[in-house]
Design brief:
CATH architecture of the largest domain: Orthogonal Bundle
Number of domains: 2
Organism: Drosophila rhopaloa (Fruit fly)
Subcellular location: Nucleus
Family: Belongs to the TAF13 family.
Shape: extended
Mean pLDDT: 80
Largest sheet: none
CATH class of the largest domain: Mainly Alpha
InterPro entries: Histone-fold, TFIID_TAF13
CATH superfamily of the largest domain: Histone, subunit A
Order of helices and strands: HHHH
Pfam families: TFIID-18kDa
């Protein structure tokens, strides 16, 4: 056994005191006190990916903090590369272009968005024609 001047630790007792850890502060949310926006959706997503049906609130809050941090960082990066002061779809596409999964997902979402716009427009036209026929 290598001799280091560290005392040998025994983990058999199971009496761990983590209250005195100095590193606990890194897990405290910097956004404490703000309204949780995505809790319901994240719980459903977590369940869909194999987590418990009712995950711990702390886990959902941590995940939400990570999601919001990612969105904020991505938005700031998109604003830096864009010409205008606003985030454009092209800026997001440019940011994710090297990540094939993200790029494919963005393209899928944009395609679905266009299809939904066309379907809504067609539905509104049918609805308008239907009400116009009743007026005559």
């Amino acid at each position: 056994m290598a001799s280091n001047n560290m005392p040998e630790e025994s983990f058999e007792g199971g009496d761990f005191n983590f209250d005195d850890d100095a590193d606990d502060d890194q897990f405290v949310s910097t956004n404490s006190g703000r309204k949780r926006l995505f809790s319901k959706e994240l719980r459903c997503m977590m369940f869909g990916f194999g987590d418990d049906k009712n995950p711990y609130t702390e886990t959902v809050d941590l995940l939400e903090d990570l999601v919001i941090e990612y969105i904020a960082e991505t938005t700031h990066r998109a604003m830096e590369i864009g010409r205008t002061g606003r985030v454009q779809v092209e800026d997001i596409i440019f940011l994710v272009r090297k990540d094939q999964r993200k790029y494919a997902r963005v393209k899928d979402l944009l395609t679905m968005n266009e299809e939904l716009k066309k379907a809504r427009k067609a539905f509104d036209e049918i609805k308008y024609v239907g009400t116009e026929g009743k007026l005559k």
